[in-house]
Design brief:
With about 400 residues, the chain is of the alpha/beta class. The protein folds into 2 domains: about 20-130, P-loop containing nucleotide triphosphate hydrolases (Rossmann fold); about 135-385, no CATH class. The protein is about 40% helix and about 15% strand. The protein has a 6-stranded mixed beta sheet, with helices on both faces. α7 crosses α13, α10 packs across α11 and α11 crosses α12.
Length: about 400
Amino acid sequence: MGKIVLRLLTLPDTKKHSAFLWGPRRTGKTFWIRHNLADAPVIDLLRTDTFAEYGARPALLRERYMSAALARSDTPIVIDEVQKVPALLDEVHWLIENRGLTFVLTGSSVRKLRRGHANLLAGRARRREMRPLCYPEVDSIDLEDIVIRGLLPPHFLSDEPVEDIRAYVHDYLREEIVAEGLISNLPVFAEFLRVAALTSSELLNYTNVAREVGVSAKVVRSYFEILEDTLLGFRLAPWTRSRNRRMILTPKFYLFDVGISNYLSRRAPRAGTPEFGKSLEHYILMELMAFKAYRMPETEIRYWRTSTGREVDFLVNDRELAIEVKASARVHETDARNLSALADDGRVKRRIVVCLEEQRRELRDAHGSIWLMPWREFLDGLWSGDYL
């Protein structure tokens, strides 16, 4: 078990700018705010009394914080889990415009806001995202360990991570979703979660998942939308702009944390198994997503797959970086053939096989170098800005 050494999240200057801070539950949003905005007033909508008060009268926010004294405050007003009372955003908008106040608005679900056409402040609040822990934020990572415990801070630090993940799944992934009225059949949704985890990193196929779960493809589509809206999963789009090949156009779907995914799918991957290979791929994608959130928000991450089955795991920023992930301590030339096929279709600036070998080495093909790189060295380079 490692230690957390820092969190990479930064907010814009909260004396001048408001911000939305999105992220799944237990990624550390509230903890970060307590330590970095310790003097800021906090409206915690997870507290039942606070929720009841503002839910009944959103105008209380304006009545309490419109004073001239607060308008000159150097601290933002924090509203934790703002999606619980979407009408508060109209009051936030008014206070920004008329009193010059700034806000930090945290949330773990955008579903109510989207469905209710809530006021998202029309660009008056900058967007930030809190991800699970990533490579620079911890003192050490053991791959076989983190594919079981995942990278949510409480689970990463836990002496009993499986017990904590079980509680998380029960409390947050099921009961909260039911409590918000998002689904009506908990057993069916629980089975959907298992199947969604089993098919995480595969092509998104509503019909196949529906067959496994025993509901219609339309219902399954709505369930995937719930996972996306509650920030518990995301789609990875395919690369489609090929000059010479027919490309797969279907997105893939990933759950947001590798430990949650393996728990729900009832897997405990060990090195040398196919499941461990999928988990390593998932973990590398988590690092890419964290890099996008904290360092380069405009980063575009896709996968490349032809209709004949050629596939490269990740293609970043319009062929600037192509990544193939192999959970092998000995990579062969044949393991890099898809990176060669990708380059046949147009120039790729940098091609890397992320693997479990101990030292970096180079393969050559007609298009130049393919680097076989130990996973730690790859992540050191990614977070140092060597590739993007």
